[in-house]
Amino acid sequence: RLFSPGRFLVLCLLLLGTQQRSGVGQTEYMWFSSSAPIPTYVLGANDQETVSYFPELSGCELAENITYLGRRGLYSGTSGLQIAYLSGTESQDEPAPAYSFSAKDVAELKTSLLSTPNFKGVDILLTSPWPRDVGTFANSAGEIDTKKCGSKLVSDVAASLKPRYHFAALEKAYYERLPYRNHTVLQETPQHVSRFIALADVGNTSKKKYLYAFSIVPMSLMDPAELVKQPQDVTENPYRKSRKEAQKTKAPLCAEEEPACQFFFDLNKHQGKKRPSHEKERGNSQPKQAKKPPQPTGPCWFCLASPEVEKHLVVSIGTHCYLALAKGGLLPDHVLILPIGHYQSVVDLSSEVVEEVTKYKSALKEFFRSKGKRYVLFERNYRSQHLQLQVIPVPLDHCTSEDIKESFIAQAQEQQIELLEIPEHSDITQVAQPGTPYFYVELDTGEKLFHRIRGRFPLHFGREVLASEALLALPQRADWRRCAAERAEEAAQAHAFRRDFQPFDFALRA
C-alpha cells in the first residue's frame, strides 16, 4: 500500500542523502535485473555527476520498486497521507540546473498547496538541504552551524507548508530538533507542531543515525483537538524572523507567472490533468504549440490514422479521442474509449485528451443509464501499445457497485493479485507514473480499484471477472478471440450503437 498509516518508513538512505550505494549494485537496479525489497521513493540528484541517473525531471520509475518522485510536488498516498518534496540543492539561476531548485520552483510548489481550500499543512516534507536557521530557539545541532548552512528557500517552504515532519540529509549529520510551533501564542488559533529530523549518510563510519522509523496517522484523519496538542518541549518557530525580513527586502513571485505546476502528483488540477500546465491555465496570452503524442514504433491497430484500424467499428470521433466497438466484444455494446494519437496509458495523456476522455465517460454514463445499465471501465497497461479503455455495461437490477467491486477483489485474491481500492477523489496519476505497468478499474460511480503489475498478469483478467457467473454469467465469452463476428455483423452493431448513442454524443454538437 502507498504510505499506509503506521507503515511509513522514511527511506532517507536513498531519499535525501549522498547517493551512497551498497549491497545490490546500482547497474543491477538500473537494468531491472534486481528490485528493491519494498516500495522505495527517492529524491533526485544533488550534483552534476548524478544527474544521469534520473532521466526524467518530472519523475519516473528507476527500477522495480524504486520511484524517483521528481523535481518538486506532492505525493498523496491512498490513506490520505500528504508528502511534499523538493529535489536537489538551492540555485540562484533561472532556469535552475537539473540538480537544483530555484525560487520559482518554490513559489509554484507553495502556490499549488496554499491555494487548496482549508489548507492546514502537509504530513511530511522531504528535501535534501537543511533549512537555514533551523537551530534557532532549539537544542544544539552539534558541529553544524545552522545560521550558515542550509537553504533559505527550504526554510520558506517549511514555514509555508507547515509539515508535521520535515526530513533532510545533505549535511550528513543526525539531528532531531525539538518540535516547534506553527502559530503565535495568544495571537493565532493553535496549530499542529513541526518536527525537523536530519539523517546522516548511509553506512557512515561514525555510526550516526541514517534511518528513522515512525508511525503516523494522516492529518486528515486526526481529531482536530488531538492534532494541535502541544508537547512540553515545544519551541518558537525558527523561521519567523528570517521570513519577515525576506518579505521586507524581496517582492514575492507573482503566482500568475506560472502557478501550481507540480511534477509528480498535482492535486489542485482538475481530475486527471497532466503536468505541466498549459498556457491557458497559466493565464498567458501567448498560445503554446500542443505537444505531439509519441509515435508508435510499428503498426498500431488503434491509432485512428493507421491503416490497421477497423474503421467500420468506429462509432464516434471527437477532437482528441474516439469511440469504437470492441472487436469480439463481451456484449454488443462493449465499447472502447481510445485516443486518436498514440498514447500508451492514461497517465501519459495530455490535459486536452484527458478532458475529452472525461466527456466520453460522462456521455456513456448517461447513455447506459438511459438503458437501465451502469458501466464498468478498466485499463490494462501491460503488454499493450496503445491505450484502450474498455467500457462494458452491466444491468442496474442485476448487481450493485459493491457486487462488482467484491467480484474483482475476490477473483484477484484467488490469483494472488493485490487489488486496492483508491479514494474516489484521487486520480490514477497519483498512484502510477508513466512507464509503470498497472491494471485499473473504474465504476461510473467514481469508485476505483488499482493493481501495480510487478510480474506476470493474466491478459484477460478484467473481462474474465465481468464474464463470470457472479456478474454477467457469460464465461464462454471471456476470451475475445472466441467472440469474433463477421464484418457485416460488426458493421450492423456499430450502426445500431451509433444511432442510439447520437443524442448523447457531444462530438456531434461540437
Report on this model:
Helix 3 packs parallel to helix 4 (152-161). The protein is α+β, with helices and mostly antiparallel strands and 510 residues long. It is elongated and about 80 Å long. The longest helix is centred in the last third of the chain and has 20 residues, at 351-370. The chain is built from eleven helices and 21 strands. The strands form five sheets. An eight-stranded antiparallel sheet has the order 14-15-16-18-17-20-21-19, sandwiched between helices. The chain has a six-stranded mixed sheet with strand order 5-6-9-10-12-11, with helices on one face. The chain starts with 8 loop residues before the first strand and ends in a 9-residue tail after the last helix.
Which features does this protein show?
single chain; 510 residues; alpha+beta; HIT family, subunit A; 2 domains; 21 strands; disordered N terminus; CWF19-like protein 1; Cwf19-like_C_dom-2; HIT-like_sf; RNA lariat debranching enzyme activator activity
**Cα-to-Cα separation, first versus last residue:** 42 Å
Count all strands and give the number: 21
Indicate the radius of gyration in whole angstroms: 25 Å
Give the amount of beta strand, in percent. Answer: 15-25%
Largest sheet: 8 strands, antiparallel
**Overall pLDDT metric:** 83
Provide the helix percentage: 10-25%
Spatial shape: elongated
- By helix and strand content, what is the structural category? alpha+beta
Keywords: Signal
Domain Cwf19-like C-terminal: 289-397
Domain Cwf19-like protein C-terminal: 415-506
Region (Disordered): 271-296
